[in-house]
Amino acid sequence: MKLFSTKFHGFLDYGTVVNLPVLFRLLRAQKPTQQVADAGALAVVLYSLLTRYEMGLLKVLPMPAHLALDLLLGATLCGTALRQTEETTAVRGTLAGLGLFSMIAPLLTETTPKSPHP
Question: Which of 84, 106, 100 is nearest to 24 (CA)?
């Protein structure tokens, strides 16, 4: 048994969608970093809506594929933290922290939803 249910993971996903763009504006990140955050949030909302879990709408994407995309997002955020050397330590640290969480959360998440779906 894993720490996170797929339903809880869905709440994390939609929280990410809301918080990712806002957070980097509050931190006064540079435009390229904000664009990475915005693109990440857009990607998460799209693949979350397509995922076969409690929080999905169209339910066509298998949960393991969703988790792989989360890993990719995490790697992208960590890579951005390394690459954006002009950013403040707060921005780079936040990118790295969110990136690491995005890579750890899939390892802690169930791969099969508890509730049935079409």
Answer: 84
